[in-house]
Design brief:
CATH topology: Rossmann fold
CATH superfamily: Alpha/Beta hydrolase fold, catalytic domain
Shape: globular
Low-confidence stretches: 108-114
Oligomer: single chain
Radius of gyration: 16 Å
Number of helices: 8
Length: about 200
């Protein structure tokens, strides 16, 4: 039975992946959810804890499904992950420094609140140099980009397609399969077609 490790996004909890976990288990997969809080630890320590969680619970080949920052954590942890990492599914991943994080980090009025809420993780996301050193796991990878975000010239993404938080362009990762889904960032993991695609992908 394939094992799936689930990693939630920033500002969310393990509960945000409960429906996805339930659907995956109904499809015959075992799931393990990992939780963290960006205000309590820097990103590299969270990644180290995630790698330790996988080492403790992995039993044979496994896949990782990340949502948003969960994908950055997985990439950062990948050199420390045990053997058996077979598939990686990225839901709404910021695979380049996201425009929204850079805007919030640079805006004088927003910077203090953004920093207080996101801590080290926010600084990393807003720093393009961080992405230049971020590892890319050498495993089959499937990326899902949401396209249901609002589109207006006065918004950060203007008329560009996005999920409301990350633009479609920012999700691209060289070598990865890329798909789009009509969903917003916060709830992309609850799309039933995404669940089925994960089941099919890890079975391939």
């Amino acid at each position: 039975m394939t094992q799936i490790f689930l990693v939630h996004g920033m500002g969310r909890t393990q509960r945000s992946l409960a429906l996805l976990a339930w659907r995956l288990e109904r499809a015959g997969l075992r799931t393990s959810r990992f939780g963290y809080r960006v205000r309590q630890q820097p990103l590299d320590q969270i990644a180290a804890r995630f790698a330790a969680h996988v080492r403790e619970h992995a039993n044979g080949p496994y896949a990782i499904v990340g949502h948003s920052l969960g994908n950055v954590i997985t990439r950062l942890a990948s050199p420390q992950l045990p053997s058996g990492f077979a598939h990686f599914v990225m839901l709404a991943p910021p695979n380049q420094s996201p425009r929204l994080a850079r805007l919030l980090g640079a805006h004088e009025l927003a910077r203090g609140l953004f920093g207080a809420l996101t801590s080290d993780a926010g600084r990393c996301l807003a720093n393009p140099a961080f992405y230049e050193t971020l590892p890319v796991p050498a495993v089959p990878t499937l990326v899902f980009a949401g396209t249901a975000g609002p589109r207006a010239r006065w918004l950060p993404f203007a008329g560009e397609r996005s999920d409301g938080i990350v633009s479609v362009k920012e999700t691209f990762l060289p070598g990865a399969e890329h798909r789009e889904v009509d969903a917003i960032h916060t709830f992309i993991m609850n799309d039933a077609s995404v669940t089925q695609a994960i089941v099919d992908f890890v079975a391939a």
